[in-house]
Amino acid sequence: MSDYESKPESKRCCTWPRALIALLLLGVAGVLIWQFAPIDEDTVNDLKGISNSTDEPTAEKNDESDGSDGGSNNGGDGSNLQGCNGLDVICDLRLDEVLFAAPHNAMATKEGGYPYITGITGPNHNKPLEDALKAGYRGLSIDVCSCNGILELCHGVCDLGSRDIKEVFTNIVSFLQDRPTEFLMFNIQINNSPIGGVEVDIQDLYNLMKSVDGFYDMVYVQTDTQSDVEWPTLGTLLKAEERKQIVMFHFNGPNCSENQPCPEGLHYWFRYGAETEYDFVTKQELENAASSCEVTRGKPVDQRGFLGVTNFVTPPEEDVAKEINTRAFIEQRLQDCSEVNNNQNINIFFIDFWSIGDAVEVTLEENEKRASEKARRRRTTKSALRTTNTFNNKNHKSKN
């Protein structure tokens, strides 16, 4: 007889008491998780059979990318969308949960003729912003000036390496029409005192947006002016019947109050978000997180939805960008600035010389981590709720 066969069967005289104790402990654990675990509206909706997204998140990156821009290309009609901003898993992230990498002063480029004046100014980038979009950047920081009665993208001086706004917006429409799963965040500085220019009328900017065929149709309009407003998910925006692929924020112009109203779709940045200090000369100043991650503009930490972080020096220096646009530096900066600001997620970070470094890759990986963490929290909470419901049902049956 084998050792296995010779062993007597275990006694099970205490099975029911043990089972009842285990069930009781599970119920207590479920109640504790219910009370203290984070739970969001999406989780509640899931349990009710409601979904804010048409896709179930997966654990893999989108394979539909055309390989040229870090995004998905599934046909211009939007009928077969897969993924959001290059990833399947982030469609369930709200807009204020997503990270965007943004070329700072994206219109001021070496190729565009912006001059370099030692110690004073210089191009922020080598290549045009359209190429940044193709490389996978989904945020844009641009300055709008009024020069000779015409709006243009300029950096401090009219007609100095400037760009035609209508041309840029037209190019963006074409880019997004070919990539219906991609979403852009604009951060627009209204430059009211450029050399050779005058104050910008924001209504003129709105009219220009409307004049570019297809552009305004892509713009999401947030009608709730409360700073803690609930923002839609990327999936909701991209898969709506009237697909939205752009959100536009602005600052240094009207604050969109009753006394300074703004046209629909042009949202005042510092009503909904905040931003860190931006005036740094050296890499070492950026590394001092206590000061460089301090919010100097916008809402207090407990009232804001979006948080912007700067990652550049002034004047722009390509050699410095080679150091601060690396994976290690960006990851550390995002972590430092989050910790300084009560562990709030960073939503947009601004860099110079976008063609150098690892910003796009870091952004994709960070968004994937955020989506995975959100999915984990939802699974934990739903499991706790189901355990509690099971315990309550069994308890009810035992009483009957």
UniProtKB/TrEMBL annotation:
The chain crosses the membrane at residues 20-37. Keywords: Membrane, Transmembrane, Transmembrane helix. Residues 68-77 have a biased composition (Gly residues). It comes from the Eukaryota. GO terms for molecular function: phosphoric diester hydrolase activity. It holds the Pfam family PI-PLC_X. One of its GO terms (biological process) is lipid metabolic process. Residues 48-77, 367-400 are annotated as: Disordered. Gene3D superfamilies: Phosphatidylinositol (PI) phosphodiesterase. InterPro entries: PI-PLC_domain, PLC-like_Pdiesterase_TIM-brl. This is Phosphatidylinositol-specific phospholipase C X domain-containing protein.
